[in-house]
Amino acid sequence: MSEYSDEDFIHLFNTLFEIRVTVQDMRALKADFVQKIYYLFLKDFGANLESINQFPFDVSESVSQHPELYREAVRIMTLAKVIRLFFKMIYNEESFQPADLFYPKPKRTRRFFKMVVDFYFGANNHIEDFTEIEEKVSLKIDGRKKMLEGIEKLKTKIGDSRQQNSKYQIQEDEMQKRISSSQHELSEAHVIKQGLKNQLDKLKMENLNVANSINDGKIHIIEAKERIENLAGQVVQESEKRDIEEREHQLSTYRDTSNQKQSRMDELKKSMKSINTANNLMKDNLLSLMKEIKEAKEKESEYSNFIDQIEREKSTNLEEIEDILMKLQQFQEQLLSRQERISQINLAWSIKKESLKEEVNQNKMTLEEIRRSQSEDDIAAQDLEAEQVEMEKEMVAIQEQIKHFDHFVATKYQAILQAMETQNNDLEGLLTDLTISVNRRN
């Protein structure tokens, strides 16, 4: 524990609490002054002091007749309780009593004032580190918030893209069905066309045969006419007459058959014309479908480009997350380094403590020598011994204060490490959600 003079206390209290403290105040250390210093310290520390000035409602009738006396006593007792709790939490010091406020002793009061001032100096030495850590954590939180907003936007884009892809997929399936149906109809029309073509070829052959038969019949008729002319003057026999009639009947039959086949050929030509018209219509439909397929392919290409862009953005976000994790790891390493510095400080204090112990032992030896050699200085030696005892007490107090101040700092660092661990867990959960989202999209 550092040694402070009255001037140091005056300067520190004037600066910290913005009040006017005089040398006479520090020398007298009256109860009202000591209570005021502790009250201002707790107020600056951020303690809730409303209960100190509150008057409880459940007081007895006799006490309520003198409320000001009761209020003052309760205020001082409550202040003592809060101050005692502070020293216990920070320094594990439980020797502070209400009497230190009602009837403060200079030596004890200065020792407690030293502890208060040491707390201010210790907190001030680490305030920059804590402020820097809080700023870094705040920046990480803001960056994580922005990253989460970007991820939500990406999720929305991916959802919209999936819906659009589903719509395009449905349209493509419908087009494929229409193409398959058209191809089936085209195949059936081709079969019908081939059958009609075969029938037409068959009819052409039959027509050719009929034409040949007609020509043969005509030749027979001509020959018969010639024979009739040659036999004009002769008697026509019954058999030749029947032969002529039979040939004329066959000629008539051939003519009827030829007319029927000609009609059938005209019908087939009309059917071929209708089939050609249907084929042309189906070709137009196929061209329209091919155009729609081409447009769908172009949209699919645009969608693929959009998906690639999302993948690139996702990769960029993953790189940013890795960078944040790396920075967090560096931050943890810095915390570990600072903890090592604290350990080094503790080691330095331990060395200093050992040095003080050696100095005390040396003083003991010197005191013993003085006792043996100078019996006339017993009173002075007793004073030295009293100072030595007080110094040993202060040494113990120093050790306890260092121990609990280190515990206080370590607790703060532990809280920061826990906050960082929570943030790391949140980032890991975010990476898991991203991985699940990407797997679902694939």
List the helices and strands and how they pair.
Elements: H1 6-17, H2 23-28, H3 31-45, H4 50-53, H5 61-64, H6 67-91, H7 99-102, H8 106-230, H9 238-373, H10 378-441
What does this structure look like?
- This protein is an all-alpha fold.
- Among the domains are: about 1-105, no CATH class; about 175-310, Helix Hairpins, CATH 1.10.287.1490.
- Helices cover about 90% and strands about 0% of the residues.
- The protein has ten helices and no strands.
- Helix 3 packs across helix 6 (about 65-90) and helix 8 packs parallel to helix 10 (about 380-440).
- It starts with 5 loop residues before the first helix and ends with a helix.
- The mean pLDDT is about 75.
- Strand proportion, as a percent range, falls in under 5%
The largest β sheet comes out as: none
CATH architecture of the domain at 173-312: Orthogonal Bundle
How many alpha or pi helices?
A: 10
Shape from CA axes?
rod-shaped
Structural class: mainly alpha
List SSEs in N-to-C order: HHHHHHHHHH
Provide the residue-averaged pLDDT: 75
Specify the helix fraction band. Answer: over 70%
State Rg: 58 Å
Briefly note the CATH topology name of the domain at 173-312: Helix Hairpins
Low-confidence stretches: none
Tally the beta strands: 0
Q: What's the CATH class label of the domain at 173-312? A: Mainly Alpha
Distance between the termini: 66 Å
